[in-house]
Amino acid sequence: MKIIVAILIFSLIIIFHELGHFLFAKKCGVKVNEFTLGLGPTLISWGKGETKYCLKLLPFGGSCVMEGEDEESDSDRAFNKKSLWERFQIVFGGPLFNFILAFILSVVYISAIGINDTTITDVTPGLGAEKAGLKAGDEIVSINGYRVHFYNEISMYTFIHTDKDSYKIVYKRNGQKNTVDVEPKFSEKAGRKLLGITKIPEYHKQSPLGVLKYSAYQIKYEIYLTVSSLKMLFSGQVSMDDVSGPVGVVSTISDVYTESASSGVFYIFINLTSIAILLTANLGVMNLLPFPALDGGRILLMLIEGVRGKKMKPEFENGINLVGFGLLMMLMVFVMYNDISKLM
Fold it and tell me: Which of 25-54 are b and which e, b meaning 16 or more Cβ less than 10 Å from the residue's Cβ?
């Protein structure tokens, strides 16, 4: 059951991404030849109008195959015949829909449980927070200029920025804002530097307007987390062994399902919704990377086209995307091998 649930979540995220491409293609009058969920051999296919819909064997990935996207076409409804602005909309539509899905799921999540705010429950004696004068009941507003709205943002920020010897923290006490410098101290138990503040999880329900506001903050947090994680990967702070592909994602979702099962259906739903928010926001950001074959790579080529004032030769652009696709497939094989090795 847990594997099926994991695959369904993964499939929903992919379908929503491809749906973004599909709907913007339709809006711009581009013919969509095939809309696919999965990779590999086709299990089921059916046609409706001009588009063929397919379900393939491997539930990882998907595609929205448009007329004239990767080949020359004389059709007036071909992708390559559309204006730069129309092509940009179609390509950007995929990542945009990932962020829209993340927002929708955040609305559901926050409506259901509320938010765990940034009010400190206690401070640890002898650590930086106590020395700086922070007390239980203080509300953290920002760290080094980064505005925080959820308590896990504080943990995330300090985890990512472990190189800092001091954090400038703005906090509220009795409605007044104050600023202090807090020096973190290394903890052998935690294996990293700590500020010395603690928080007992306490979720506060929000008004409908508050739900929408904090859902937007949730997307900001997920995007910041993904971008920061990529920086850590490229800077060597984390290794490729810490990267997960589809197999690892399904395994993680399965683990979350198993751990939540003893708490009941509601907690299974809440925890799976939380991880789905992270995954769809992550996919949106990853697809915007300026790498050939990704949506971001195509957008980069469009920006170059806009600066040059003329289209790149189709065979050259297709060659770039083909090389990029090959490199992505090699990376995918490596990551899947790594995932399977960790499971073994």
Answer: beebebbbeebbbbeeeeeeeeeeeebbeb
Alpha helices in 44-150 (DSSP H): 84-113, 128-131
Which domains, from first to last, does the chain contain?
Answer: 122-204 (2.30.42.10)
Contact 63, 38 (CB under 8 A): no
114-159 residue pLDDT tens: 999 999 999 988 889 999 999 999 999 999 999 999 998 998 888 8
Model's pTM, two decimal places? 0.85
Partner residues linked to 204 by β-bridges? 115
DSSP state of 177: E
Distance CA 70, CA 319 (A): 10
CA dist., res. 261 & res. 255, Å (int) = 10
Residue in the block written with tokens 């379908």: 15
Rounding to the nearest 10 degrees, give the CA dihedral for residues 340, 294, 329, 102.
Answer: 20
Given the structure tokens 């189709």, which residue do they identify? 314
Give the DSSP per-residue string, 30-75: --EEEEEEEEEEEEEEEEETTEEEEEEEEEEEEEEEETTSSS----
Please state, in angstroms and rounded to a whole number, the distance separating the CA atoms of residues 149 and 202.
Answer: 14
> Cβ neighbours of residue 331 under 8 Å, at least 6 residues apart?
none
Beta bridge partners of 168: 181
18, 69, 153, 222: which is the annotated catalytic residue? 18
Could you confirm whether 18 is annotated as catalytic?
Answer: yes
Q: Which residues contact 195 (CB under 8 A, 6 or more apart)?
A: 127, 128, 129, 154, 158, 167, 169, 182, 184
pLDDT digits (tens, 9 = 90+) for 276-302: 999 999 999 989 988 887 899 889 989
Residue 82 phi/psi, 5-degree rounding, is: -85, 160
Please report, to the nearest 10 degrees, the dihedral formed by the alpha carbons of residues 144, 276, 251, 334 taken in order: -70
